[in-house]
Design brief:
Elements: H1 10-13, E1 22-26, H2 27-32, H3 43-50, H4 58-90, E2 101-107, H5 113-124, E3 133-137, H6 145-150, H7 165-176, E4 182-188, E5 193-202, E6 207-211, E7 237-242, H8 245-261, H9 279-302, E8 311-315, E9 321-327
Parallel strand pairs: 2-6, 2-7, 3-6, 7-8
Antiparallel strand pairs: 1-9, 4-5, 8-9
The structure holds adenosine-5'-diphosphate (ADP) and ligand PAZ.
Ligand PAZ binds at residues 109, 137-139, 157-158, 212-213, 289, 293-294.
InterPro entries: P-loop_NTPase, PanK, PRK/URK
Domain Phosphoribulokinase/uridine kinase: 102-255
Main location: cytoplasm
Length: 329
């Protein structure tokens, strides 16, 4: 006699949770991993980090960014191992040495990308395996103002089409290929434009951090419709800095308010005019810029790339990272 099929336990009938390539961690879960992090910060280093000029809470450094620097240090070691295996396989045929580890840092205007990138640069350079850490921001590849004007893109600054994306990708590809010296144009927030004749020089770093709004954008298809290699294809790791739009807008306005009392006072500043009107009028301009440029860019172009990052840092209203999602698949 055939025995009846036993009914499945109730839990097995429940639909499976949607598969996600990420493991989600609370701040407490993540910071507990710092016990596995060698190289605690010395008093001297704490002082040096303060000297970066950013308002960084040191608990934040210990709880969030120190474990991240350890994770990245592990990734760099593992990637070197893979490189060795590939070189053994290829032999004379195209083996490659001096390939830096490339980290992309993405997120909205004013979410704190530059602060995260500068912090990572300082923390990663402490490891004896990779002391030379270079940081480049993608603003150097914005089209010069004259060109933006000619193409009708002045009010699209920061949108993907406002960059020379080909030159940016070539720049990172050249560094990754181990070229001795690679140069990039330089953008100045002071003059709100590319600085004529100035170049940033990058010489064979161990790690390259590439920070910018659109670094996780997929490559544009070529004219023949074929897929091209894009910037993010050169990344070994990427971080997306995330926060609620209302918080980011507040940080943007606060930064504008602070700059109005400092950098905008410089007679060469593009924004000097906003020091001569009332704070409310100046903030009206900043609110309009947020509403018409930075917010639409965040929603249309930046946020959709979040799911391509290796790590998503989710900040609360006080800039403190509350949750993290790390790719495991
Ligand atoms: N961890 C932090 N703690 C406090 N303030 C921060 C932190 N990170 C960024 N900020 C502030 O938020 C604003 C935006 O940060 P910034 O790094 O300039 O952003 P982005 O490079 O994304 O435009 C700045 O005024 C900065 O001082
Ligand atoms: C220079 C930026 C486009 C950021 O560029 P990124 O470093 O991300 O390539 C941005 O800071 C900016 O100036 N946006 C234009 C609108 C505004 O003035 O806020």
């Amino acid at each position: 006699m055939i025995s009846p099929v036993p009914s499945l336990p109730r839990s097995a009938h429940r639909s499976r949770p949607e598969a996600t390539p990420y493991v989600d961690l609370t701040r407490a879960e993540w910071s507990a991993l710092r016990d596995k992090t060698p190289l605690p910060l010395t008093a001297e280093e704490v002082e040096r980090l303060r000297g970066l000029g950013d308002v960084i809470d040191l608990d934040e450094v210990r709880d969030v960014y120190l474990p991240l620097s350890r994770l990245l240090n592990l990734y760099v070691g593992a990637t070197d191992g893979l490189r060795g295996a590939l070189n053994t396989f290829l032999g004379e045929k195209g083996s490659q040495s001096g390939t830096p580890f490339v980290i992309g840092v993405a997120g909205s205007v004013a979410v704190g990308k530059s602060t995260v990138a500068r912090l990572l640069q300082a923390l990663l350079a402490r490891w004896p395996e990779h002391p030379r850490v270079e940081l480049v921001t993608t603003d150097g590849f914005l089209l010069p103002m004259k060109e933006l004007q000619a193409r009708g893109l002045v009010s699209r600054k920061g949108f993907p089409e406002s960059y020379d994306r080909r030159a940016l990708t070539r720049f990172v590809a050249d560094i990754k290929a181990g070229k001795d010296e690679v140069t990039a144009p330089v953008y100045s927030h002071l003059i709100y434009d590319i600085v004529p004749g100035e170049r940033l020089v990058v010489r064979r770093p161990d790690i390259l951090i590439v920070e910018g709004l659109n670094v996780l954008q997929p490559a544009l298809p070529g004219k023949d419709g074929r897929t091209r290699v894009g910037l993010a294809d050169y990344f070994d790791f990427s971080v997306y800095v995330d926060a609620k739009e209302e918080d980011i807008q507040r940080w943007y306005l606060n930064r504008f308010r602070k700059l109005r009392q400092t950098a905008f006072q410089n007679p060469s500043s593009y924004f000097q005019k906003y020091t001569r009107v009332s704070e409310e009028e100046a903030l009206d301009y900043a609110r309009t810029t947020w509403r018409t440029i930075n917010k639409p860019n965040l929603l249309e172009n930046v946020a959709p790339t979040r799911g391509r990052a290796t790590l998503i840092l989710r900040k609360g209203p006080d800039h403190k990272v509350q949750r993290l999602s790390l790719r495991k698949l």
